């Protein structure tokens, strides 16, 4: 009993100690990424969740690093290259550390001519976009 | 003399227990290399999975960005990074981990690369209680020199705790139920989150506070 109480109070202390002041509003980022890992065909759901998080967080708080870029990547995979650029630019201006990677992503968006860049997201997206989303929901 | 011997052995045992129960000596880690580089960004690459659960490495990735970013570092988007590496022919985490950190640093523009190995990710089933075990190794390497700047190990065990009702039979029953529930879908995620949080935030052992956390204070 005592050990249980002790364990419980330690866990409680840890959880409360870590909980209150976060730098960023994470929304359900971890949950939706977990869902994507569980079911890679649910990429559209992941994209929607990211968009939802961005809309909510931009209104009220501080967006965590990587979220704009993840959403941009979702758009690349959905072949919306010009839209994706907007989000890579946003990531870059909020997080200068991402500059090199974002510039590369933007470059591939501007020149989807290089075959491997274009072919892979397209192949990825085919099973996930319209038909799959329609049948799942 | 006999009594004395008894007392001495008691003393030795108690002393031993005292040492065993004390938390590991809180010697501060050596942060000289870390401080010399003063990194701002951390690239988390796909993790090596040594557990028998093949899904562990992907699920793990969902739990690591938050604590590292909350510590004050720029964390590269883990899913994007994973896909970019796959496109680069580095789909296998073992390949990524054996690649030169300097190459990854140059590819992504990251100050550091965080390599993680899953040593344990299992549920151990017993009749009345199921315990979930996780164990991770962390190694942060410089993207400029390739040298290790920080390392840590974390392991955690969770046994579902049913609150005691005071009735032994009811307790036994509820323990059986929680075991059954855990068997159906052992949930590693909260445990992995806890372990990652501990590894990153532990005083004198975790990652030093990063630039974005300093700014906000």
Task: Describe the protein's architecture and organization.
The complex is a heterodimer of chains A (137) and B (217). With 137 residues, chain A is an all-alpha fold. Chain A is 73% helix and 0% strand. Chain A contains eight helices and no strands. In chain A, helix 2 runs antiparallel to helix 3 (43-60). Chain A starts with a helix and ends with a helix. The model of chain A is unreliable at 115-137 (pLDDT under 50). Chain B is α/β, with parallel strands linked by helices and 217 residues long. Chain B contains ten helices and six strands; from the N terminus they run ααββααβαααβββααα. Chain B has helices at 2-21, 32-37, 56-61, 65-70, 78-87, 93-98, 101-108, 168-184, 189-201, 211-215; strands spanning 41-44, 48-49, 74-75, 112-125, 130-142, 148-158. In chain B, strands 1, 2, 3, 4, 5 and 6 form a six-stranded mixed beta sheet that branches. Chain B is globular. Chain B starts with a helix and ends with a helix. The model of chain B has no long low-confidence stretch (mean pLDDT 85). The A-B interface holds A 1, 4, 7-8, 14, 18, 22-24, 26, 29-31, 33-34, 36-38, 64-67, 69-70, 72-73, 77, 95, 97-101, 105, 116-117, 120 and B 40-41, 55, 58-59, 61-63, 65-66, 69-70, 72, 74-80, 83-84, 87, 108-111, 161, 164, 189, 193-194, 197-198, 201, 212-213, 216.
Keywords:
heterodimer, A: 137 residues, mainly alpha, 8 helices, globular, disordered C terminus, B: 217 residues, alpha/beta, 6-stranded mixed β-sheet, 6 strands, 21% strand
Stretches with pLDDT under 50, minimum 5 residues of chain A: 115-137
Whole-angstrom Rg of chain B: 22 Å
Q: What's the number of extended β-strand segments of chain A?
A: 0
Give me the Rg of chain A, rounded: 19 Å
N-to-C SSE string of chain A, H for helix and E for strand = HHHHHHHH
Biggest interface, CB < 8 A: A-B, 37 and 38 residues
- Helix fraction of chain B, binned, reads 40-55%
Structural class of chain A: mainly alpha
According to DSSP, the number of beta strands of chain B is 6
Mean pLDDT of chain B: 85
Count helical runs of chain A.
8
Mean pLDDT of chain A: 79
- Report low-confidence residues of chain B grouped into runs of 5 or more: none
Largest sheet of chain A: none
- What does the overall shape of chain A look like? globular
Output the structural class of chain B: alpha/beta
Q: Span from first to last CA of chain A? A: 47 Å
Form type of chain B = globular
Sheet having the most strands of chain B: 6 strands, mixed
């Amino acid at each position: 009993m005592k050990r249980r109480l002790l364990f419980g109070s330690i866990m409680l202390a840890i959880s409360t100690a870590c909980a209150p002041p976060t730098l960023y509003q994470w929304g359900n980022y971890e949950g939706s990424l977990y869902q994507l890992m569980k079911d890679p065909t649910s990429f559209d759901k992941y994209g929607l969740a990211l968009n939802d998080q961005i809309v909510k967080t931009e209104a009220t708080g501080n967006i965590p690093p990587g979220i704009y870029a993840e959403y941009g990547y979702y758009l690349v995979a959905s072949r919306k290259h010009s839209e994706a650029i907007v989000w890579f630019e946003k990531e870059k201006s909020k997080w200068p550390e991402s500059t090199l990677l974002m510039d590369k992503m933007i470059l591939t968006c501007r020149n989807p001519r290089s075959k491997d860049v274009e072919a892979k997201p397209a192949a990825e997206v085919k099973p996930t976009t319209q038909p799959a989303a329609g049948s799942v929901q | 003399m006999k009594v004395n011997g008894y007392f001495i052995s008691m003393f030795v045992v108690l002393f031993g227990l005292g040492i065993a129960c004390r938390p590991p000596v809180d010697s501060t880690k050596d942060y000289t290399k870390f401080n010399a580089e003063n990194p701002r960004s951390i690239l988390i690459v796909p993790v090596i999975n040594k557990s028998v659960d093949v899904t562990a490495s992907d699920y793990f990735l969902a739990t690591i960005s938050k604590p590292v970013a909350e510590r004050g570092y720029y964390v590269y988007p883990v899913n994007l990074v994973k896909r970019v590496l796959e496109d680069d022919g580095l789909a296998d985490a073992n390949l990524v981990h054996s690649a030169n950190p300097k190459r990854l640093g140059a590819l992504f523009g990251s100050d550091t690369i965080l390599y993680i190995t899953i040593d344990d990710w299992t549920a151990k089933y017993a009749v009345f209680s199921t315990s979930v075990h996780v164990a991770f190794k962390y190694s942060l390497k410089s993207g400029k020199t390739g040298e290790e700047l920080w390392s840590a190990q974390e392991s955690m065990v969770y046994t579902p705790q049913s609150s005691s009702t005071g009735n032994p039979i009811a307790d036994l029953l509820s323990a059986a139920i929680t075991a059954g529930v855990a068997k159906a879908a052992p949930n590693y995620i909260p445990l992995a989150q806890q372990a990652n949080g501990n590894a990153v935030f532990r005083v004198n052992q975790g990652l030093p506070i990063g630039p974005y956390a300093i700014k906000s204070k």
